[in-house]
Amino acid sequence: MTAPLSVEYLPAHPPVVLQDKMKRYEKFADEIAELIRTGVLAAGEKVPSVRHASRTYGVSPSTVFQAYYLLEDRGLIQARARSGYFVREHAKQPLPDAQSNPRPAHTTDVDVSELVFSVLGSLKDPNTVPFGSAFPSPHLYPLARLARSMAQSLRVLSPHAVIADMTAGNPDLRRQIALRYMVSGVMLPLEELVITNGAMEALNLCLQTVTQPGDLVAIEAPAFYATLQVLERLKLKAVEIPVHPREGIDLQTLADSLAHLPIKACWFMSSLQNPLGASMSEEKKRALYELLQQHQVPLIEDDVYAELYYGTQPPKPVKSFDRDGLVMHCGSFSKSLAPGYRVGWVAGGRYAEKISRLKLMTTISPSVPAQAAIADYLQHGGYDRHLRKLRHTLEMQQSAMLASAARHFPAQTRVTRPSGGYFLWVEFPEQVDSLQLFQLALAQGISLAPGPIFSATRRFGNCARLNHGHPWDEASERAMEMLGRIVTAM
Amino acid sequence: MTAPLSVEYLPAHPPVVLQDKMKRYEKFADEIAELIRTGVLAAGEKVPSVRHASRTYGVSPSTVFQAYYLLEDRGLIQARARSGYFVREHAKQPLPDAQSNPRPAHTTDVDVSELVFSVLGSLKDPNTVPFGSAFPSPHLYPLARLARSMAQSLRVLSPHAVIADMTAGNPDLRRQIALRYMVSGVMLPLEELVITNGAMEALNLCLQTVTQPGDLVAIEAPAFYATLQVLERLKLKAVEIPVHPREGIDLQTLADSLAHLPIKACWFMSSLQNPLGASMSEEKKRALYELLQQHQVPLIEDDVYAELYYGTQPPKPVKSFDRDGLVMHCGSFSKSLAPGYRVGWVAGGRYAEKISRLKLMTTISPSVPAQAAIADYLQHGGYDRHLRKLRHTLEMQQSAMLASAARHFPAQTRVTRPSGGYFLWVEFPEQVDSLQLFQLALAQGISLAPGPIFSATRRFGNCARLNHGHPWDEASERAMEMLGRIVTAM
């Protein structure tokens, strides 16, 4: 796996062989973090002593020391006086396995929109504790630095560009995005890149490019609710593929469905899936691609959380295995850099030209100044430095929420521990009705995203998605306590 | 008709009775301009002497003087030494009547997209004389002043707003747009307003809100080619209603079609129609509304050129007659203020909430910084002053192109003379094939928009749309001469 390299100092034609800059102790810390995430090292358990670890893993004691400091800083372990390091407290139950799909070949007309809008509409009060929000805190983003990039880029933007950049997009932005792909190991022809109004437009365009009303589309269960809304709007039928909370979609169910159903496209999040946070392994991503390649079914890869991985190892997209342009890889700056700017893209593979034409017929172009500002920031703003800080903050806040869940939620509650992003998926005891919980919590000024809005078949009735993208404070802690009380009363 | 009032100095709660600020001589100039446009006063003809006009129209000689100075400044008349004022030379043929529609009840599957894209794709060379362009020169817009508004608005924008403004839109921008409606006589409830990625997204959302694939939609013939592309994309069938080049759509044909066909929506440009430049009279707009109201068929009113009227009298939209929310009025800042910013809107009437939800499912929001910048400009930038200058420039350039057409095009050529905007519609002699003309002109570095891209049934084969939104210079003149030579050779 390639380390995250800063693209800021790359020459216009960077060397093809890129140096692996990840340090020894960072690698070792990532390995220990993975043991914690997967539950091999449980909450409250002692981590191996420095001497023991040094011997067992064949690394120097100073590497172990540095790794443990880093893990403490990341909120994963904590020191106890004279006793060494322990895994920080968090919800103690093991992670849930994916709910098995009772009818894998079942297809569903989607009609979840009304429910989603009624939930979203109730989140508007800014005084609500925003556990139900889809966005992290805007204070995590370098908005003032972006504003400087905006001012600078508008000073040098030629009047001609405000019109010319509408069709193809800002050329500097296109180059910067392609550079970031290259650094992560994907050699992307610039012609594949279509700049869009955020990833949401990209996903819509992709889906319309490869489907007709009535077609079957494979999606995840649970899935991002907007996926369900878009399918509903385009009169597409959903084939729900169960997602394992750590390992991602169930490939066997997908293989069976592809063999028996005329599926026209797949829409998956292969890394940091929303809402579960699951990331597929590289081997599994490769196998997914080979399966789709065999059936010649295109993949719409929704990768909007790509930059929010914790630690140092960026997940590779399925797109990196794409040999024949079958994968449409959708990204965005909305979650990583510039919320509200509405700039995203799709690396559209063999469908790029169709996608681009469709965009010209629907919105023409994302805002030219917003594109120029982001292009300037990517060149001069310190994007990778910002990202490191952002990832660190989100991981710290995840630890805080997990610890709080352990303190306040009933013991049978099960919680995911994703390796990135800002969502936890919580499975409450079976008798909990999360739509009712949503209403009761909202009356107390606390929002959450109830499980059924993530399913075309209204499953996950005892689940909820909680957002830890906001600063963890006294109000967050009290809100978790209140949620715990409501759930216990149920 | 209400005069254009400056909204810059209006208090937060402006008085309900607005003063008519249009001066006597401006009104008189507008009346003479109308006589010239409609051909009552022909090219080269002497306009009435000051004494004669003063007596005939019951205005003071000084009013006539001032009006004639203004008309000269607007490029409509010119003084000849010791002889008085004459109508400036332009294409001498009378305006064409609308081509009669041979089968008014005929419906058409649309498949014009490929042709449009092949035409548009060939316009990219910046060295081409841009008669085929859809945009006026970007130098006509206050881009530097807008950049200042962008910098200022980003300084004061709260981080919270980058997320909150995505759903409803920038509140200042919404208020400013509603104010401008109010000044033009439309009292618009703020809830009706949906901010979009330019008018193109607004039009798409409106159409999807009131139609299903297979439905019939009444459109103009000729129509803006994007209208045809959108219908094609959404699998809608076109009912083409002929447009008279001065008076707008043929209401009788529309009435017949509504009586006999299950038309689900109309998509019309009631003012400065693209490509003909036709503007319907107020009486006709009212009659159109009454007809649609009677059939309860919604109107999607595409009014993107609303601010580009010449003279002093803004055309009223059909929306101003709307009593029951049947009209979706789509506007944009792309043609009047901020090309490339991609900020438009729709006053959605009874469909506003559906439109808003559909937007959340497709692009979520236009760029928040772009919205904030335009809101700041509308409050502090001097929008009405800019618009007066812009209208004046476009009118001058129209006169220049008309005069050039008179010099270089064959005598049988017929040309429109719209009362605003930046397009002329040219009807060449019947044997001219405008697609072939397009190719031959392009080889000479001249673009134009050939007639067939404006028709679902590939009509208007001897017509073309010419853009006069760019500074008129020696190259423009030579290009017209070249077009004239090619056409004559045909």
From TrEMBL, chains A, B:
Ranges for domain HTH gntR-type: 22-90
Molecular functions per Gene Ontology: DNA binding; DNA-binding transcription factor activity; pyridoxal phosphate binding; transaminase activity
Cross-referenced InterPro entries: Aminotransferase_I/II_large, HTH_trans_reg/aminotransferase, PyrdxlP-dep_Trfase, PyrdxlP-dep_Trfase_major, PyrdxlP-dep_Trfase_small, Tscrpt_reg_HTH_GntR, WH-like_DNA-bd_sf, WH_DNA-bd_sf
Family annotation (PROSITE patterns): HTH_GNTR
Any matching Pfam family: Aminotran_1_2
Keyword entries, A-Z: Aminotransferase, DNA-binding, Pyridoxal phosphate, Transcription, Transcription regulation, Transferase
UniProt record similarity statement: In the C-terminal section; belongs to the class-I pyridoxal-phosphate-dependent aminotransferase family.
Protein name, entry field: HTH gntR-type domain-containing protein
Organism: Pseudomonas turukhanskensis
